[in-house]
Amino acid sequence: MPPTMVVAARAVRAAAEDAGLTLRDLDGLIVCRSGNATEADLGLELARLMGLRDLRLLQAVYAEGASSVAAIQMAAMAVSFGLATRVACVFADARLEPGRAARDSFGTAKSVDGIGELRYAAGLFGGPAVYAMAARRYIATYGAPPEAFGAVALAARQWAMMNPRAMFRQPLTMAAYLASRPIVEPLRLFDCAMPVNGGIAVVVTTGERADDLRQPPVHIIGMGQGHPGTPDQAGSERELTSGGRVARDGAFAMAGIALGDVDICEIYDAFTYSTLLTLEEYGFCGRGEAAAFVRDGRIAPGGTLPVNTGGGHLSGFYLQGMTPVAEGVIQARGQAGARQCIRHDIVLATNEGGRFDHHGCLVLSPHRRAA
To answer: Which of 166, 291, 355, 358 lies 20 to 30 Å (CA to CA) from residue 131?
Structure first.
């Protein structure tokens, strides 16, 4: 069995056990594909390899970094309409190898074939390069200083220091952030997420069935997606906007909440710039105001808007969209230990896919609400 499949299978088993279920209790499975994964890495074959039989739902979802939220949304609709009763959604990655740098395991090797791949001829490879271009335009447009990106990295590290599962728990200072080596300017080392080998799975069922399970249920009271389709053309705002606002409007309307009701934000932060842009997209601050918003520890422990309370992708672990979902569930359950936020009635979890091409969000709560 491929390593990614092994990790995914372990995650599904752990999620079922956490809920007090056996694998035979699952009648649905949705696998989330990453940008570099193949069907052989993680695909529908997982069900057969795990011995899952007579499934009523089996799907693979690919929306790049937004795949996890999209899968959970699909599962929620499936159980709501009776297509299935208990659906496991899983993301896993296991490409890191001993003695091989992460940049080699996750790097992009492309040959130029057509105008759509001219960027590779110019040396524009991988996520850091395209996000660095977006960050550069943001800086040129709004004048954000390096310390604004550093404030995001420092806040994530402060949360991670209270998370025993986080990869990076050593203290990080602004001086150390500013002195860290450049990856692709203006992004520094601590602006970028750390990939890991691992997997996360969740079990989605109805509220009524969840009441009888082992763990306190976390309810999906709102969900949304946004796919801007912004072209790479002069005059577009692709680097300065995402689908967050469209996703927010749908999710908040479904949940019946306003911006001020959100207690915690778990934001997809493969790069520090993603956090700044998402805060603006959702309206926590105006366009170009995120640099001032994150200043003085507002999103750090003790701040008025806790963001990425497990360390996020930056200091916690990069398991794509499942990282913010998992921390959102832990916080909503009230099981986050030293990092637990007192107010956790409304938790926002977001996903970002591609270069701000695909966006999804969930509004989570420990309290059930009428549809």
So the answer is: 166
